Give the backbone structure.
Amino acid sequence: EIHVSLMNLEKISGMNLLINYDASAILLGAISDAGSRIDRFDYFTYYSNYQNQSGDIKVIAVADESDPSVTLDPGDGTILTLRFYITNDYSFAGYSIPIRFVFKDIFTENDNTLTDPAGAKIEQDAIVYNDGYVLIKKADYSSIGDINLNGVVYEISDVIYYINYYINPSAFPLNAEQRANGDVNQDGI
């Protein structure tokens, strides 16, 4: 999960964001404003692979225009959450995959803009954008075979845990570390 945050000193009534990620390393699962600072906004939508550009996400959120009390008050915190699936390709292990604001609309400069309660656009140069990233951790190969995470590799309880997982994966789920430790031939599957 990546939390996109906004620190604003004035009230905000709308936003138009364009975010990009490397689709060869991570896959967008969902975007949500639930529990965020903008979850009271009247309109929230997003477009994945915006304008057929792989990895581009367009997010549009607008407060209720008929009720001026529904705005984003000055403050700091999460405005939306991006949920990603990470590749199982080991060649990406140890790399930081950037998630950044992109500016493609150079003529109207509408990408990554905010509007005030009167509907006036807050210019891009009045905003500071900080990009983020997803770090794909390297697997600890010294733990290959330790499915139950007790620090002992290739013991009978590891085999039993793995068998239980294959019989009933919902009752015996594997977390990311257990999956990595269970990949004994290190093929990423």
Notes: The longest helix spans residues 156-167. The mean pLDDT is 90. Helices lie at 156-167, 176-182. Strands lie at 2-8, 14-21, 26-32, 43-48, 56-62, 75-86, 96-101, 113-115, 121-122, 132-135.
